[in-house]
């Protein structure tokens, strides 16, 4: 489960071959003991939770980096090495 980005104490991860359980392209986000699975397509949370402020930051980051995230998703589904994505600044 590689960390693909990190900003403001938020870790963004993508698991290899994680399309069996949640068939949609998504990321996993951790922040201070909370974890959520978030859709790349629309930024919705479909598992877990994050505090509202951190969720808004992650959703903005997803919107900025959607193309890169979808490329990483395809790599992850195929078990290939992912590339890091710039943090939210």
Q: In words, what does this structure look like?
A:
The chain is built from two helices and five strands, in the order E-E-E-E-E-H-H. With 89 residues, it is of the alpha+beta class. It has a five-stranded antiparallel sheet, with no helix packed on it. Strand 3 and strand 4 form a beta hairpin. The longest helix has 13 residues. It starts with a strand and ends in a 12-residue tail after the last helix.
Proportion of residues in helical segments: 25-40%
> Oligomerization state of this entry?
single chain
Instruction: List the helices and strands in order.
Output: EEEEEHH
Largest sheet: 5 strands, antiparallel
Spans of at least 5 consecutive residues with low confidence: none
Q: What is the rounded Rg? A: 12 Å
List the helices and strands and how they pair.
Elements: E1 3-7, E2 10-13, E3 26-31, E4 34-39, E5 45-48, H1 52-64, H2 66-77
Antiparallel strand pairs: 1-2, 2-3, 3-4, 4-5
